């Protein structure tokens, strides 16, 4: 009886192992399953810059990739395409978007309205989906403000230099005028003294 039980246990382990291997093989052969990686989930950009919304997907079947933009101005569909087939770009983004085989997109000439959340969905033909999100922050170009301040400072410096030169010229003219007046007074005083001496 003990030998029979041991034999049953041994057969049970073998049958269990074989069943597990068959199930694993069946799962690997079954089409379906999609994965998505977002290497840079946060992007900082300045106005008029080009940005790459980078992702990498893999799936066993044919995938459809869709990108959407969500911000305080609302939700906008950017682009949808099927690998190896059609590409449908929204009219708003028609001249600004480039698509890549790995699911990434490039957005050219970004503006303040391009800030927000970018959602990517990879839909595999057998019904499995993968989702990713990238946050984009867009900032005004600071050096333009600094350029304005520098120009204003240069203008004020030039005006100050002109005023200083003008004041120096006025001071010099006044000094020359005073010198001439003093010289004339001295001459007239000398003449008066000479006249008084002659009269005496």
Automatic annotation (TrEMBL):
Q: Which domain of life is it from?
A: Eukaryota
Mind naming one GO cellular-component term on file for this protein?
Answer: axon
Which of UniProt's keywords are assigned here?
Glycoprotein, Membrane, Signal, Transmembrane, Transmembrane helix
The record's section on InterPro entries has: CD2/SLAM_rcpt, Ig-like_dom_sf, Ig-like_fold, Ig_sub
Membrane-spanning ranges: 12-29, 146-170
Is the Hydrolase keyword given for this protein?
no
Enumerate the spans annotated as Immunoglobulin domain: 40-139
Q: Name one GO biological process term.
A: filopodium assembly
As for subcellular location, the record says: Membrane
Q: What is this protein called?
A: VSTM5 protein
Q: What is the lineage of its organism?
A: Eukaryota, Metazoa, Chordata, Craniata, Vertebrata
């Amino acid at each position: 009886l003990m030998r029979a039980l041991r034999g049953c246990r041994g057969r049970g382990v073998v049958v269990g192992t074989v069943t597990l291997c068959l199930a694993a093989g069946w799962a690997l052969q079954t089409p379906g399953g999609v994965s998505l990686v977002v290497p840079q989930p946060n992007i900082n950009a300045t106005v008029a810059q080009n940005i790459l919304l980078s992702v990498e997907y893999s799936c066993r079947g044919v995938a459809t990739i869709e990108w959407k933009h969500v911000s305080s101005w609302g939700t906008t569909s950017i682009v949808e395409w099927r690998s190896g087939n059609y590409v449908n770009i929204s009219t708003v983004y028609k001249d600004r978007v480039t698509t890549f085989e790995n699911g990434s997109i490039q957005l050219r000439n970004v503006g303040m309205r391009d800030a927000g959340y970018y959602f990517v969905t990879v839909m595999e033909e057998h019904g499995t989906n993968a989702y990713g999100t990238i946050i984009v922050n867009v900032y005004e170009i600071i050096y333009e403000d600094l350029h304005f301040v520098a120009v204003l400072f240069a203008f004020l410096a030039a005006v100050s230099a002109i005023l200083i030169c003008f004041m120096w010229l006025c001071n010099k003219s006044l000094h020359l005028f005073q010198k001439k007046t003093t010289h004339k007074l001295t001459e007239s005083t000398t003449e008066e003294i000479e006249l008084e001496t002659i009269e005496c």
